[in-house]
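Late entry, evening session. Most of the bench is empty. Finally got around to the prediction I had been postponing all week. Sequence below, unchanged from the version circulated by S.P.
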Amino acid sequence: MNSQIDLDSIPIIDFYTLDLKKTGTPEWNSAKSQVRKALEDCGCFEASFNRIPPELRKATFGALKEFFDLPLETKKLTSCAHQPLHGYLGQYPQNPLFESIGIYDILSDIEGIIRTVVVESLRLEYKEPRTTEKTIGLGTHTDKSVITLNYQNQVHGLEVKTKEGKWINVKPSPNSVVVICGESLNAWSNGRRHCPEHRCMMSGNETRYAVALFSFFKAGYIVKVPEELVDAQHPLLFNPFDYSEYLKFRQSKASLSQMPLKAYCGTGI
């Protein structure tokens, strides 16, 4: 039986000393255990780093402001309609305060370290993929990604919902990224990693900027639960599915169910 955990904040895990070339160290194994518990309990955690120079942080959010201040027609030049979640995504009618751009194939050593630790926390061998008054800035949702890395300016607003239905106001330090388990990891791990609902609530007069790095499976990749994660205590929850087709499904009205992933490929258990 899973014990209920009352959380007032998301777990903070130290990634300062971790190096992909030095896996298996006591520090690596400690982080792996903490990641496993964090993703099981609440589906997210704050990863603390020292690899984001203040100058880069300032330049990044300055560039974001410059981009979103451009005329609409200029921003639309980056649109990529044939690829879901790529290019300028515009504003959502239901969330007029939210505006975004998706940039393809951004990789970093930070994402690589976190992704490796997350996979190893499932005790699987890691392999490179083959393929005041608040206003809702972005409504309640789950991410379609494997994992999401969220790096924001110090205008907070990200809130994560616990399994018990409590909303946690996430306030990461400038040297941290917030790591959120996506639907794809939830399916691939056979439900062993929790995919939390989250939202962005805005208050005050300052603009909030956030850089979200979404880790996706490659186009055409078939997401299938590893045999090692299916047993009598953990029956198969999700049928294999084409990740690209699932992204298309999530953009259709058919995905408006409360649990779109289960609606798309759930086994009914």
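Two things to note before I forget:
The two ends are 17 Å apart (CA to CA).
The longest strand covers residues 95-102.
Will write this up properly tomorrow.
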